[in-house]
Design goal:
Blueprint (H helix, E strand, L loop, with lengths): L6 H10 L5 H5 L1 H11 L4 H15 L3 H12 L11 H4 L5 H14 L13 H9 L3 H9 L2 H12 L10 H10 L15 H4 L9 H4 L25
């Protein structure tokens, strides 16, 4: 395995893990050729990535794009925003993003992308600009997060994102790591996670009763106003 550079491999994997628009899918043969030519991945891992590319070329564009959204945008366990796995929506995420952006600047990459700096394709783009030892060490710092994403993906059905585990496994290999199983918390369904609490704690059960059910009347005695005191 060559170790002099990871530049092409990082960039190819960044493209594979980004939204699968038509231009990206059309470039898949060239992307595979670049990945194979650099030789940073083992043959076994390369074969897995090739299989992922094949799935991206199959079916209509809408189905491929919908699968990507369902895989990475509808649940925290497979989110490609690295710090979401560590900080969630807490205030600590903001300073962490600033620190990462400063790391990019120190490495010669000034971040102006529309995505957040912890988005994995952006992370890989930065790694592609660094010497192999630096890139490998940088990616290895996120190995625990990558393992969590990989574990979540391999538990999914074939039609719901599991092939993408090959790309995450490839990133781990570039980092000098091997995928390790991680205990995953099942994502709460978005319909439940985004559901607003019922006003007044649910009128149907603790306010008004259901149709056809007698509604108890509560009478509260009003205290007479004291003389000279305006009610």
């Amino acid at each position: 395995m060559k170790t002099t550079t990871l530049s092409k491999s990082c960039r190819v994997l960044a493209r594979l893990l980004d939204y699968p628009h038509a231009d990206m899918r059309a470039a898949l043969p060239e992307l595979y050729a670049a990945l194979s030519e650099e030789g940073a991945l083992s043959q076994a891992r390369l074969a897995e990535v090739k299989a992922l590319m094949a799935t991206l070329q199959q079916g209509d564009a809408y189905a491929v794009e919908a699968r990507y959204v369902e895989t990475f945008d509808r649940g925290r366990s497979t989110s490609l925003h690295m710090f979401e796995h560590v900080h969630g929506d807490s205030r600590e995420r903001g300073p962490a993003l600033i620190d990462l952006q400063q790391t990019y600047a120190a490495g010669g990459m000034f971040f102006e992308a529309s995505e957040l700096p912890d988005y994995l394709p952006v992370v890989l783009e930065f790694a592609s600009t660094q010497a192999a030892p630096v890139a490998r060490e940088f990616l290895a710092e996120m190995a625990h997060i990558l393992n969590a994403i990989h574990s979540a993906l391999i538990k999914r059905p074939e039609s719901q994102g599991r092939p993408y585990a090959a790309a995450i496994g490839a990133v781990l290999e570039l980092a000098g790591e091997k995928p390790q199983a991680v205990q995953i918390t099942v994502d709460e369904a978005l319909d439940e996670a985004w559901q607003e609490p019922a006003a007044f704690d649910g009128c149907s059960s603790k306010g008004q009763s259901k149709p056809g059910v007698p509604q108890p009347i509560h009478i509260v005695r009003k205290t007479p106003a004291q003389p000279g005191v305006q009610a």
